[in-house]
Predict the structure of Aminotransferases class-IV.
Amino acid sequence: MIYLNGKFLPIEQAYIPVLDRGFIFGDGVYEVIPVYSCLPFRLDEHLARLQHSLDGIRLANPYTVSHWRSLIESLVAQNEGGDQYLYLHITRGTARRDHAFPAGVEPTVFMMSTPLAIPGQELLTTGVAAITAQDNRWGRCDIKAISLLPNVLLRQLAVDACTMETILLRDGLLTEGAASNIFIVRNDVLLAPPKDHRMLPGITYDLILELAAANAITHEIRDISEYELRTAKEIMLTSSTKEILPIVRLDGQPVGSALPGAVFRQLNELYQNYKATVMRGK
């Protein structure tokens, strides 16, 4: 079951007009929310990021926070089963093709649920590989826009190389992954790129920094050079669907000891404990 413009219906029965601006221009934003045991994870933070994206493209939020909550609870309930993730998609609506914003048009609102397969223990134990590429995306990466072709092409580079992710570099600095945020460890300090227009403000990124601060893990938020990335003792990626994963090879070269490091193991344990506490409703 999915939700489309005020109705819950089977996905096979869902259609949008070909003149929808999301289809024609990629004129819209989206959000992804993990759901564990029917409980949306950090929902307030996800809805706040959705609002930031809507503000960024000058599109009024079609629903209040309470209405979003009600719709999300209904969709989760109608897609019973294991863990899932919700995909929320809002476009500027349907109008004749013209670059300028149309007046008096209702936005298109779409939500669907997909089974969530988080990384298994093997990946957490052995780690994953990544490659690097130049970040050639647009200048407002803080907006979670549906026009993701640059990310698609960059992510495909990782698939072609049989690796997990493409880590992006712009002007000699680390920005993020094609579909994730990136942390590194140098001199026993956890380093994170700053949240600005060059990267999406990740919900898991924020949680990792909260856990680091609450558990006396030394950390800094600052620009990270390509040299620092390539000589890091540890590298890890975070996202709502992959949680936190250690990167042990970068462009074919080992990262540190080529095994998940101590900081990753500590953060992953803290993350899993936090998630379990939230799922218990405490």
Remarks:
- The radius of gyration is 19 Å.
- DSSP finds eight helices and 15 strands in the chain.
